[in-house]
Amino acid sequence: MGKYENLAKEIVRNVGGKENVSSLTHCITRLRFKLKEESLAKDDVIKNMDGVVTVMKSGGQYQVVIGNHVPEVYAEVMPLLGLEEGSADKADETPSGNLFNRAIDIISGIFQPILGIMAACGMVKGLNALFVALGWYPETCGGYLVLNAIGDGLFHFLPLFLGYTAAKKFRLKPMIGLVIGAIMCYPTVQAGTLSAGGQVLYTLFSGTMFESAVYTDFFGIPMIAMDYTGTVIPVIFVVYFASKCEKFFNKFIPDLVKFFFVPMLTLLVSIPAGFLLIGPLATFGSTLIAQGVMTVRNFSPMLAGALVGLTWQILVIFGLHWGFIPVYINNIMTNGYDNVMMPFFACTFATSAVVLAIFFKTKNRQLKEMALPNFISGIFGVTEPAIYGILLPLKKPFIISCIAGCIGGGFYGAFNFRKFMMGGMGIFEFPAMIEPDGGMGNLIVALAGVAITMVIAFAATMIFYKDDKKTAEETATGDRRAEGGSVEAEGESETVPETDGVGKKAETRAALLHQTQLYSPLRGRVLKLETLKDDAFASGVLGKGVGIWPEEGNVYAPADGVVSVLFPTLHAIGFSTDEGVELLIHIGLDTVQLNGEGFQARVAQGDRVKKGQLLVSFDMAFIEEKGYCLETPVLVTNSDNYLEVVETAAEHVAQGDVLLKVLK
Do the Cβ atoms of 122 and 432 come closer than 8 Å? Predict the structure, then answer.
């Protein structure tokens, strides 16, 4: 069994099963599902799983935030879905969601598969440049050439990789997308090659930013020369057009010759259209985007940088930062650097510094244990675990990190901070900030911005952050538990043993201001609520609790209280405890249709009873013989009034064992 096999199974079950999953990808910290029906996913159940940070819904995706070990969880989930890594969507071809959500989904689907290897190659390229700048070896040596090939190969032939991933996203055969990328990188059709070997026939759009030389034609149609190696946008649009061509030809080409005629016709139509129209227009579009964002930035570089720094973490929370990745890549490929999106670099270190300050400031043992690894993860560029696990729940630290990111971003904007090549994350991005001529001025700006941001974030957290009352209660409770002592709770005193059989994750998160114990009304096997066969109960909409598969036909009072409702069919009991907790005990599923057969009441509606008093008896064999399921939900129906309902971790309970703890 894999380390994360159980977690993977629980995630798949609670997103609605594999039948509800259209596709799955992952980024650095998240599983990104496309679900057919998001309403079938049980958000609260998934959020409370050990190994899950939180759940986000954005850009048409259902995102389960896992943390740094997401690749291992992804590898366990994929076989359960019957998918292979990188397989195309199983969904209908009609895209869902509004235009913005669809755009975010397309962008993330195309770029996510190559981000890891892109970061790796960028790090090699950056380190190679750093070592040359330090004089460790010259650019003319063989070692430099090989390392440069490792670092630059992906970026030079980027259209091949994007052609492949875009084809998967647009449901074109991936090999056709790969071929389109290769054709667009073919040496003899690049502007550099054509200009070196031929004369200009004429020039189009003279005197404009789109001025283009024509060196050749396609059977009399002028072909604008462009350099497509290293570009981003043209290949994506050509592949999209090719996907429509393939779909069209599939309708009319006989099955007997489809295997080779459809790809051939798709290429014969899409490639000329790409070189003659789509490619030049997309390249012009890339230039416009680059010029547009530079115009906005030039209005006030410091203000633009501050705005990026202030909002970047908010965009990360909702997964909307993907919409800006093409801008960043396009700027580097078009201008040779990016100085528009790079102010977000400050946010990485703002988050890390805030978490480090919390580590020193908090007295909460659990928070300390979380803070240090999240700090290390943050300086390496992965901040989602810190944001979701620490900053957002504590609120004030998140605000501090955004403000510090804003100040650092403004500094970067004012000093024209740039990144000259893609790749790397966190501290591994520094080599990519060395200027192409070996100058270190931009790298000094990078280091100064990190120092300013971290000092502000750290100092502000140390000054303004304090453990709130709830966190302090949690700390004191945890310390006394560790010593086997007692817990004081709003006028009550309760001795808590080291292990009480009740699920610990929710319990350690809640400050025990007041606790009500509810005892099992049945003897039997405990079932997770979400596994019950009745969706109304399993969804938790009727209340939080558990299910029990009974091993004897008696239901007892779970506490001192009143039988508030006894249905005429005797299949369900409403119960109000003396402390105000309202319970529903539903004997079997759909057993209302038995009209009371097989049930015998031992009390009447309105009776006051003591814990352990017999309420109803039922004939288990009779109920099963009639074809009904014996799963018996035990729910706290007013659970919204309470901080948490913590179920037992035991797999089997006897009548009278602690079943639920209600925290207020």
Answer: yes
% the chain with pLDDT above 90: 33
List beta partners, residue 489. Answer: 492
Query: Distance between CA atoms of 113 and 120, rounded to whole angstroms?
Result: 13
Q: Which fold has domain 515-663?
A: Glucose Permease (Domain IIA) (2.70.70)
* DSSP per-residue string spanning 35-81: ES-GGGS-HHHHHTSTT--EEEEETTEEEEE--TTHHHHHHHHHHHH
The string of pLDDT tens digits covering residues 270-296 is: 999 999 999 888 878 766 765 666 676
Matching residue, tokens 């973490």: 313
DSSP state of 228: -
Pairing of strands 524-528, 515-519: unpaired
Closest CA to 116 of 236, 25, 230: 25
Q: Which residues are marked as active site?
A: 27
Q: What is the CATH number of domain 5-91?
A: 3.30.1360.60
Q: What is the distance between the alpha carbons of residues 122 and 395, in angstroms, rounded to a whole number?
A: 35
Give the separation between CA 141 and CA 138, rounded to whole angstroms. 6
Helix, strand, or coil here: 371?
A: helix
Q: Report the distance separating Cα 14 and Cα 16, nearest Å.
A: 5
On whether the CB atoms of residues 615 and 563 are closer than 8 A, the answer is yes
Report CA-CA distances (Å) from 333 to 183, 227, 231, 574, 641. Answer: 19, 11, 6, 67, 55
Q: Is 387 a residue whose pLDDT tops 90?
A: no
Residue 567 CB partners (closer than 8 Å, separation 6+): 573, 592
- C-alpha distance from residue 138 to each of 130, 141, 241 (Å): 11, 6, 45
Q: Which residue has the higher pLDDT, 477 or 556?
A: 556
CA distance 596 to 517: 30
Q: Which residues of 340-364 are buried (b: 16+ CB within 10 A; e: fewer)?
A: bbbbbbbbbbbbbbbbbbbbebbeb
Which phi and psi (to 5°) does residue 567 adopt?
Answer: -60, 145
In tens, the pLDDT along 181-215 reads 999 999 988 888 888 777 888 888 887 777 888 88
Q: Summarize pLDDT for 358-385 with one digit per residue, the tens.
A: 999 988 877 887 788 878 878 877 776 6
74: left (phi over 0), alpha (psi -120 to 50) or beta: alpha
| Those residues with Cβ within 8 angstroms of residue 268's Cβ, 6 or more apart along the chain or in another chain | none
The model's pTM:
0.51
Q: Which residue would you say has higher pLDDT here, 224 or 272?
A: 272
Residue 339 has pLDDT above 70, yes or no: yes
DSSP string, 147-192: HHHHHHHHHHTHHHHHHHHHHHHTT--HHHHHHHHHHHT-GGGBHH
Predicted local distance difference test score (pLDDT) of residue 495:
37
Domain residue extents for the chain = 5-91, 157-297, 301-467, 515-663
**In 74-97, which positions are buried (b, 16+ CB within 10 angstroms) versus exposed (e)?**
bebbbebbebeeeebbbeeeeeee
Cβ neighbours of residue 227 under 8 Å, at least 6 residues apart? 190, 191, 192
Whether the predicted pLDDT of 167 surpasses 90: yes
